Prior knowledge:
Blueprint: H1 5-22, E1 29-34, E2 37-43, H2 46-49, H3 56-68, E3 76-82, H4 86-94, E4 99-104, E5 129-131, H5 136-167
Parallel strand pairs: 3-4, 4-5
Antiparallel strand pairs: 1-2, 1-3
Helix pairs in contact: 1-5
Organism: Heyndrickxia oleronia
Cofactor: Zn(2+)
Subunit structure: Homodimer.
Amino acid sequence: MVKNADEYFMKLAISEAKKAEEKCEVPIGAVVVLNGEVIATAHNLRESTQNAITHAEILAIQKACERIGSWRLEDAELYVTLEPCPMCSGAIILSRIKKVIFGAHDPKAGCAGTLMNLLDDQRFNHQCEVVSGVLENECSVLLRDFFRNIRKRNKAEKEKRKINESNN
């Protein structure tokens, strides 16, 4: 096992997030680990697929289930660069993932401790351990820079349209 496994696997999730960014997707990456081995990786594809459920976590869980031939990921750990949303938290619970390790908190949709913690809610028949803030700065910067660049691009396009309209 790697000396600092959480950081090692989170760096792999960050690499996945960067793949998403290259596709103009929100840079979120996920890695599923079973017994110290990566069994699935994925990144956001929502814009590419125009499908609301193609979040990194959902795709990684799907790949992991296919890899082991079972929907039960009872001993698996999920590393993700951004705190899971309600949908992804539901998939995590239903797939019986043992532990979730995430980087950046999500103040708008985080359901692993920020807005609520669905993953540790005793009303469900499964709970999973949550570790937050692993390589938080790196994960946060990736997201912050991505959205900053989108805002800059949108502003430049808006100014360009204004100039074109005034010239016509």
